[in-house]
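Q: How would the structure tokens look for this protein?
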Amino acid sequence: MKSFKIFTVLIFLSNYTHGQIRSIYSDVDKVVSQNGIFHSLEPEQSIFIEINKGDAIKEAEEEENLIGNRLPYKFGKSVDFHHDSENSGTWIDTVGGRVWKLKISSKGAFSLSVIFSKLKLANGAQLYIYNSEGSMLSGPITSTEIPMTGGFKSDIIKGDELILELFEPKEFHGTSMVQISKVVYGFRNIFQPNAFGDSFECNDDVSCESDWDIQSNGVAMVILANMERLCSGSLLNNACDGFNPNILTAFHCIDIGNDINNIDPCNDNELGNGILSAQEIANAEDWIFRFQYKRPICNSGSEPMNFFTFQQATFRAGWFDTDFALVEMTQNPVQNSQPTGIHYLGWSRINNPPTSGAIIGHPRGDVMKIVTFDDPAQNNNEQIAWTLCQFPLRQNFSPINTHWTTMIDNGALQGGISGGPLFDQNRNIVGQIHGGIVGCAPTTGHSGRFDVSWGRDANGNFSQVEMLQIALPHG
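A: Here is the predicted structure in token form.
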């Protein structure tokens, strides 16, 4: 049976874009003032967005009460926002060019993010996005980081005010364009002071387990297409050492219906039906991947952190039975001029249950957490029932012999960790977390088996030839 070890990549392929967006966050230092942008030039225009936070929270809680945690964790609500660099904001002449600035505010938001319908940046142009308090900065964003589609999404920015700042060189005057279609209002706090996110206190930062430092460098937060929900995933190489940036995650993070802005688990038969529509696949190809979102000190402090986001992917394979999904990132996170510390992770398709191990991910959008188990996993010898709706009752079922069931000894299971990698005692990925009993240890988790997922194509069929040619590791 094949297993694959971690490599530090020194030689890269050339068929991926090179861009990464660095985000910096610190509750201690004013990161904006340290990064040489035009913070002293105040925007003359501020656009206010009004959202009823209470209604948004109530809607999310009603959804969770109805179906539990079967849907990707919801933290935000998007609203239409049709403004651009020609009809909104302020242009200011400065040395070497001009600066465009626009402030967006929404009272009571824990975070804001921006969805661009078009982002065109001239040669030498740089776009920064940061909050008013100066504790978080994302950028610079240049033409290198923008997907070929021209669409773009910002990182999730802490606070209820954000500022967009574009520098355009004098020699390229008038050639940049910023068009915004939506702003996402964060009604749940994934940036709580000291505690950071909203996960259970019994969760441990991944930095608490130093033996898992290397593995944490390949784990990502997966932010869904409308920037309202999130899952987790991991970065895998293929068996041919082609360094394809494959993200292993959960099938149920894709199988959520065609209209991700209006999910109806009780009446939408497309949701959870085990068959991916063209629209569901298109939504998955518009994801954002955030790596290195973790604290350096175990369960303590809010020291400066650097993390990185990457845009879009290509759907490669998925199978309902093991809750397995694989997408290939458009941007290679280890093929960058700036060091990120991101690694490909080792995997194994050996069909022996792990004797101990860990699950790593981002419960409720928190900084990276680790869940550990000390006893051998068990193969599921009975179907696993997943409730999609309580009234009327809708369920789907994972077949026998498709999941590893683990008794969690440390940490917790919560929404947002779905798709996070299941590691065995040798630090190899042997599955991805599907779900389980929400709560602190001791609790039970079910993870789709990597060895059973092996060889599945884009339709979930077993196809060695096709998968050898595309993404899923073979050997």
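The two ends are 8 Å apart (CA to CA).

Residues 3-16+193-469 form a domain with the Thrombin, subunit H fold (CATH 2.40.10.10).

Upvote if useful.
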